[in-house]
Amino acid sequence: QVQLVESGGGLVQPGGSLRLSCAASGSIGYIWTMAWYRQAPGKERELAADMTTGGITNYADSVKGRFTISRDNAKNTVYLQMNSLKPEDTAVYYCYFKVGITRIYDCWGQGTQVTVSS
């Protein structure tokens, strides 16, 4: 069993910043991929950013240059630094870990609300 606990969401004005955190615990094994997805009201869940075990990052075009994904391997934690936030960034943000050794598991956080509004 792997548990992911997210924190850091909230209400912020346009142009502001937030930092999301997601800590993994339990029988993690090997972490293959860490990622942040988001789901806006009435829309499908979409990838915001991800990072492979080798440190290669990938960003959605809509967040490039504004969001940064990073990790702390010692703490099994992934972060999403979000700058220059826009109202269209409003969504529930979910962290995702692909973990395992002999068997691979897709693990999701509970989601944290990010609202960008004046």
Describe this structure as you would to a colleague:
The protein has no helices and 11 strands. The protein is mostly beta strands and 118 residues long. The strands form 2 sheets. Strands 2, 4, 5, 6, 9, 10 and 11 form a 7-stranded mixed β-sheet that branches. The protein has a 4-stranded antiparallel β-sheet with strand order 1-3-8-7, with no helix packed on it. The protein is elongated, with a radius of gyration of 14 Å. Helices cover 0% and strands 58% of the residues.
**Main sheet attributes: strand count, strand direction, barrel closure:** 7 strands, mixed
Order of helices and strands: EEEEEEEEEEE
Radius of gyration: 14 Å
- The residue fraction in helices comes out at under 10%
Low-confidence stretches: none
Q: What's the overall geometry?
A: elongated
Query: What is the residue-averaged pLDDT?
Result: 95
State the separation between the terminal residues, measured CA to CA: 40 Å
> In total, how many beta strands?
11
- Total of DSSP H or I helical runs spanning 4+ residues: 0
Fraction of residues in β-strands: over 45%
User: Which structural class best describes the helix and strand composition?
Assistant: mainly beta
